[in-house]
Specification:
This protein is of the alpha+beta class. The chain has 16 helices and 24 strands. It binds aspartic acid.
Length: 597
């Protein structure tokens, strides 16, 4: 039975939960209600496993005891809904079912009533088989939700949300709602727009996050805010995104990075602890640069080693053109010691293909043999280079070494992704282990080469660390922090800009001129002038946290009514066309492409 089930107040339908009909109830009467989970006929008796949210209990319909109810027992089919009552009796030893908490007893039905006659469901509820397509499960989600695995997922989700509220309210945080019909909040995705009927031609945007409102709440003096908030981002749906998703959103005043980190470490320890995951405090901290250079990603999985090392200096003067010329052109050579592995030539070569598919110009592999390397490029390398590379990579006999020479971020990312794949493939991940880390010291802005402009690494309200020189935007660091759990980013936030002049300068640097800034964010700039406390916060992806706790890759498995990967809801048919009069009212006309996907 799930945690904390309240005692039932008896009514006409029931006086006990199914999962509560235990041996201590023997010799008393119980009335239960629920769904027919399973039905068996045996020697003139009908056995029903009746299911409610707390579990299963066996009902026995015996022609000698059940009277009129026997007729009903005989007719029952899977998923019919009924209420039944009768004495609780101990089962004979050979019929005890040790797999069920209620398996030592049964209810001998003396009275029963059919409350709802169910059609045959399109798939079995009883077993969670992968054979049912996800489309079908979502089309009949209310049936899918009756299955153990979905019920457990949503119970876990509820436990996580409750633990969050419990902890934050204990720390003086207030839960405050912010609007869903609002203006754009730039988090780097496209907005969902809602046309206004009353102000034709104007649109609300659905919030990509409550970012600006939580800052205004700090300016409003609330000091400590949180919200379990729905956010909306119109992205091309990658494997595991939802157009609407849930964040635990937090903001606090008179704080700097360490204060936010301290509170959040205790929050994580509390919430994950409630779900059986122990968090060791203080958590690790890695700078963004260190994460990239050691793991090739800003969300490293720290449950295993295989760290990256830089080999640029080793190969700077190399006879091997592919390395030397690349370095002259600004490339960085990075290497990874994948350890002593028996990999075939075919497997090694396919790593080269993977690296090129991931965007690198190539990959060099080598197997350490004595003083030298067995590698397609060994003949181009001097003994000194090989020795120096071995030393940097701490290589010994039989180790497989992988090197990529490319632009700094590409060589890191490609090797980082190979590291992640090898960790999985080589079975280096201990599924019981948990590695939580902060990534700190982020760049404030990134150069978006294709658009020739600076883009905020996070969002444009993030405070620079140690000043901001508009003449050298690339050098600015951000007071930003992410939480990474086993290779997944589960949350991120920052200290905010609380000085309107700094905010203006940052806007300008990222190409939002005075006029646009006034138009889009004038209300924030104005609010910042009326006494803004230093403030900062964070947001967590609730769906992802629950998915990780539940041991599923897909966040759809922990959302009651998710959308498919193409953004549709097979249950309600959303999104759907609307009638012409509705469009007219909104002052909208559709161009020819409507209806096409
Ligand atoms: N608004 C940010 C986000 O949605 C989180 C934060 O900075 O608090 O990612």
């Amino acid at each position: 039975m799930s945690d904390g089930f309240p005692a039932l107040r008896a009514n006409r339908y029931r006086d006990a939960w199914c999962g509560e009909v235990l041996p201590d109830k023997v010799d008393s009467n119980a009335r239960v209600a629920g769904w027919v989970h399973r039905r068996r006929d045996h020697g003139g008796l009908v056995f029903i496993d009746l299911r409610d949210r707390t579990g299963l209990v066996q009902l026995v319909f015996n022609p000698d005891e059940a009277g009129d109810a026997f007729e009903l027992g005989h007719k029952l089919r899977s998923e019919d809904v009924l209420t039944a009552s009768g004495p609780v009796v101990r089962r004979s030893p050979e019929t005890v079912n040790p797999a069920l908490p209620t398996g030592e007893v049964e209810i001998r039905v003396s009275e029963a009533e059919l409350l709802s006659d169910a059609d045959t469901p399109p798939f079995e509820i009883e077993s969670f088989s992968g054979e049912v397509s996800e489309e079908m499960r979502l089309r009949h989600r209310y049936l899918d939700l009756r299955r153990d695995r979905m019920r457990e997922a949503l119970e876990l989700r509820d436990r996580v949300a409750r633990a969050m509220r419990e902890f934050l309210s204990g720390e003086g945080f207030m839960e405050i709602e912010t609007p869903v019909l609002t203006r754009s909040t730039p988090e780097g995705a496209r907005d969902f727009l809602v046309p206004s009927r009353l102000q034709r031609g104007s649109f609300y945007a659905l919030p990509q996050s409550p970012q600006l409102f939580k800052q205004l709440l700090m300016i409003g003096g609330f000091e400590r805010y949180f919200q379990i908030a729905r956010c909306f981002r119109d992205e091309d749906l990658r494997a595991d995104r939802q157009p609407d998703f849930t964040q635990l959103d937090i903001e606090m005043s008179f704080v700097d990075t360490d204060d936010v980190i301290d509170l959040n470490e205790r929050l994580l320890a509390h919430v994950l602890g409630r779900c059986g995951v122990e968090v060791e405090l203080p958590m690790r901290r890695l700078s963004y640069d260190e994460a990239i250079s050691r793991y090739g990603t800003d969300k490293p999985d720290l449950r295993f080693g295989l760290e990256l090392r830089e080999l640029t200096d080793v190969f700077r003067e190399s006879e091997f053109n592919a390395f030397r010329q690349a370095i002259e052109g600004g490339a960085v050579v990075r290497g990874m010691n994948a350890g002593r592995r028996e990999l075939s030539r075919g497997e090694l070569d396919s790593l080269v293909d993977e690296a090129t598919e991931l965007g690198a110009k190539g990959l060099v592999w080598a197997v350490v043999e004595g003083e030298g390397w067995r590698s397609p490029v060994a003949k181009f390398l001097s003994a000194e280079e090989i020795a120096a590379a071995n030393e940097t990579l701490e290589a010994s006999e039989g180790d497989v070494l992988l090197c990529v020479a490319d632009q700094p971020l590409i060589s890191a990312e490609v090797l980082g992704e190979l590291r992640r794949r090898l960790g999985e493939r080589l079975g280096l991940l201990d599924s019981e282990a948990n590695a939580l880390t902060w990534i700190v010291d982020w760049p404030l802005l990134n150069w978006a080469a294709d658009e020739e402009r600076w883009d905020p690494h996070n969002h444009p309200f993030t405070s620079p660390a140690g000043g901001f020189d508009p003449d050298d935007p690339g050098a600015a660091r951000a007071k930003a922090y992410d939480v990474v759990w086993n290779g997944w980013e589960i949350g991120g936030g920052s200290i905010r800009i609380s000085d309107p002049e700094v905010q203006r300068t940052v806007f300008k640097t990222i190409g939002i001129d005075e006029k646009q800034a006034e138009e889009r964010f004038g209300f924030l700039l104005e609010a910042l002038r009326y006494g803004a406390p230093p403030h900062g916060g964070i947001a967590y992806g609730l769906d992802r946290i629950v998915a990780l706790l539940h041991g599923t890759e897909s966040i759809r498995d922990v959302i009651a009514f998710p959308k498919t990967a193409s953004g549709g809801d097979p249950l309600t048919g959303a999104p759907a066309p609307v009638d012409e009069p509705q469009l007219r009212e909104l002052g909208l006309t559709l161009r020819g492409e409507a209806g096409r996907s």
